[in-house]
Amino acid sequence: MTDYRIKGASGEYEVVIGLEVHAQVTTAAKLFSGAATAFGAEPNTQVSLVDAAMPGMLPVPNRECIRQAVRTGMAIEAKINKWSRFDRKNYFYADLPQGYQISQLYHPLVGEGEITVSPDEKKPDQTKTIGVERIHVEQDAGKLMHDQHPTMSYVDLNRSGVALMEIVSKPDMRSPAEAGAYLRKLRSILRYVGSCDGNMEEGSMRADVNVSVRKPGGELGTRTETKNVNSVRFVMQVIEYEAKRQVKLIEEGGEVAQETRLFDPNKGTTRTLRSKEDAHDYRYFPDPDLLPLELDDAFLEECRASLPELPDAKLKRFEDLGISPYNAAVLTAEVETAKWFDRLLDAGAEPVAASNWANSVMPGILNAKEIAFDDERNTPEASAEILSMVDKGDISKGQAKEVFEIYLDEGGSPAKIVEDKGMKQTSDTGAIEAEVDKVLEANADKVEEYKGGKEALFGFFVGQTMKAMRGQANPQVVNQILRDKLGG
Fold first, then answer.
1. How far is the C-alpha of 284 from the C-alpha of 163, rounded, in Å?
2. What Å distances lie between residue 116 and 162, 258, 314, CA to CA?
3. What is the rounded CA–CA span in Å between residue 230 and residue 24?
4. Which residues pair with 103 in a beta bridge?
5. Residue 226: predicted pLDDT
6. Nearest to 245 by CA among 208, 207, 277, 213
7. Residue 195 φ/ψ region, left for φ over 0, alpha for ψ in the -120 to 50 degree band, beta for the rest
8. E strands, 180-306, where?
9. On the CB side of 365, how many CA atoms lie within 13 Å of its CA?
10. Which of 75-89, 193-207, 472-486 is modeled with the greatest confidence?
11. Comparing C-alpha atoms, which of 121, 221, 247, 253 is closest to residue 180?
């Protein structure tokens, strides 16, 4: 697997990594109130009396939030606890109106599960299974804004009470690559399920990164937790920096402090925020305003029945169609790409040719024209039509690119573009053979050189024949006729 070690004067160290991912649940309303959750609203415009902790306001659980968390647990084959309970996590912060956060410490909604990842994207068949310890639901805090006034911080409570899933991994990761693969795979699963949009830039998914170092196979070291990291790349940078910092500290005779740290993306470094609290510091106790959650079999059956085909199942289905493991992994990484490709197959495209088109040919053309993959012009039906013409020999692979470019610019039907521009190639062996004879006769000296061992000239003959037929000859037929006439 990924052999990642940090070298110190006294030998090598291995890094031990665990991630606590906070994923905002995809719902229109908050966890315990009917206030909206849309991103980008004006500050404090999506705040109910419950969110603002007005006296006498009682929380009422949002059924959809619970449903989405259960579906997420099922997607990673985790244990679903039919009985769970909410707890109060008590601490003071200016963006926490209640003075506590409603969470689930002792009896979470979802128990142990696992996620299989491919740390090396170029070797998708080499996998590692990362354990998930639990998924619990909790409410988010508000947001402090320090740049709105020269002497004061403002508070925006729009996020206060928004439903989060906290997805806690086991400390099974041993390299930045494994952590990055885990986070990408988890994001993919959440997006397939529809329980979180996975948008890390908007803060709807962020990670707390736990890092410690030890001599290989030794006792676990003291860990640090770097809070609220909002991209896969930054998570990997945190691990790299923290591992080296901790090894250097140990090698110099110091001790790693159990603490909470913050990541500076501009410098690629972490810094101390506060000493790490233990659970008892928060004075957890069962929330007296909320009854335990009790799930019945009908609810669980409905949750399971609503799950879509998940990334690993889709990957296997694509591989069973003859698609390479690498292409299948790329096509299934993002749910929208996978849906697009399924539509391409439904339109009749041959799987292997379609996967090469979608992964290798199409992206370059879209990038050159600065057209997004999900642009309405990029329909799978148009690509299927182009691939069908290639398969029938009506156009070459090179012409397919040209047709796709014209289609993106002008729209219409790819078949009509081929017809209107006279691009349809011929497989008429008689016509092609006549042109080949002319080319060989006009280049008799080069024919002798070819037969004398200068095999690189074969491409010259192909090019001259294609030029004579204005690019409309079937290249396979041209090649075969030339080989026959040139003696292999």
1. 19
2. 29, 29, 14
3. 13
4. 87
5. 96
6. 213
7. alpha
8. 205-214, 224-229, 259-264, 269-275, 285-286, 293-294
9. 20
10. 75-89
11. 121
Q: How many whole angstroms separate alpha carbon 425 and alpha carbon 437?
A: 19
CB 229 within 8 A of CB 64: no
End-to-end Cα separation, the chain, in angstroms:
46
Q: Do 171 and 213 meet the contact criterion of CB atoms below 8 Å apart? A: no
Distance in angstroms (rounded) separating the CA atoms of residues 354 and 393 = 16
Which residue, among 414, 351, 406, has the nearest Cα to 385 in the 3D structure? 414
Q: What's the chain's average pLDDT?
A: 93
Structure tokens at 344: 């391409």
d(CA 58, CA 56): 6
> Does residue 1 surpass a pLDDT of 60?
no
Nearest to 111 by CA among 77, 65, 159, 155: 77
Domain spanning 429-486: CATH 1.10.10.410: yes
- Tokens coding 309: 């085909």
Which residue has 């929380």 as its token pair? 59
The H-assigned helical ranges of 41-132 are 63-75
- Amino acid, res. 213: V
Partnered with residue 272 across adjacent β-strands are 261
Alpha carbon distance 195, 75 (integer Å): 11
Per-residue confidence (pLDDT) for residue 58, from 0 to 100? 95
- Say if residues 162 and 139 touch (Cβ distance below 8 Å): yes
Query: DSSP of 122-182, one letter per residue?
Result: T-TTS-EEEEEEEEEEEE---EEESSSSSS--EEE-TTTT-EEEEEEE-S-B-SHHHHHHH
pLDDT, one tens digit per residue, over 16-59 is 999 999 999 999 999 999 999 998 899 999 999 999 999 999 99
What CA–CA distances, in Å, run from 85 to 22, 102, 185, 481? 19, 10, 28, 77
Cα separation, 343 vs 259, whole angstroms: 49
Query: Which residues are 23's β-sheet partners?
Result: 165, 205
> In Å, what is the CA distance from 432 to each residue of 100, 252, 348, 470?
81, 77, 30, 12
Domains of the chain by residue range: 6-300, 309-420, 429-486
Strands 259-264 and 224-229: parallel
Contact 44, 248 (CB under 8 A): no
